[in-house]
Amino acid sequence: MVEGINTVPVTEWLRAHVPGLAEPVDFSLIAGGHSNLTYRGTDAGGKTIVLRRPPLGHVLESAHDMGREYKIISALEDSEVPVPATFGLCKDKDVNGADFYVMDFIDGMVLNDSEVGARVPEAQRRPIGLHVIDILSKLHSINPDDVGLGDLGRKEAYLERQIKRWTKQWEASKTHEIPEMEESCRLLTERMPAQIGSTIVHGDFRLGNMIVGDGQVKAILDWELCTLGDPLADVGYLLNNWVGPGEIVNGPGDQAPTAVGGYPDRDELCDIYTRNTGRDLSGINYYRAFSHWRLAAIGQGVYKRYLMGAMGEDRGVDLDRQKEGVRIRAQAALNLLES
Q: Residue 152: which of 83, 81, 201, 222 has the closest Cα?
């Protein structure tokens, strides 16, 4: 029995939705935590599927909307953006206590950090990097209305809405003064660029949310933050996570997979994206600053919850490091705004 999976009713549901399923199905947790949970299901014949459900316990359904995530992935199945094939969405709470959806299992590596990144053969790193920016270009070239995603969210005023939201989050979770945070917010508001067009925005587009193998990206994962809005927000976020060799962004032990070297650098990614989409990236530092500032606001919220004991056991979390990480992010945002 795996926590979060009611094996018998879930297997019955799978029998009706996954062709050729050979029972019994063995489940194991791939990724857990405070975000959506991901399970691997392997049947008696070796066929593997993936099941996604919300975190255990009481959660806001709006924050973990399985139907929304399922809709996005299903809508992109026939596009040039690689996503797993989907088998179905279950909204019957009697089956597993919460909504869940099932998709195909894609074999490959998930590059969460530089330690895992070092396992990628050097000859495959550049092709992977080129494929990453090609996929982002293609994602941002899709008309949301053409794939049934035109109602995913408001298309206009993306930055304005985001800054308002995360300013509110910052003010609600502030435990101490961080002047860099306040000044970054002021400059982000003052210098906000006009939004040019609206596209599907992944919201967490980085190698850690992709499955790679054989010199290419096999699938883009974790669409829970996806919305409609300014595509350059995705570009700025990707660039912040595209760390070069010898570059330290958030301190030791927090290195992106690209830090091992062998990948195209940020300038080349920007050139390719501009060539593919026609979008001007001369002001991309604003979006990079916004990304750092937003993550600082999120990090402060996490810090306060741990500080107040709202996250249960601290699980070995270094509170001083978490606190300093917020300031470092805010300082990184300010540096980009002042550059």
A: 201
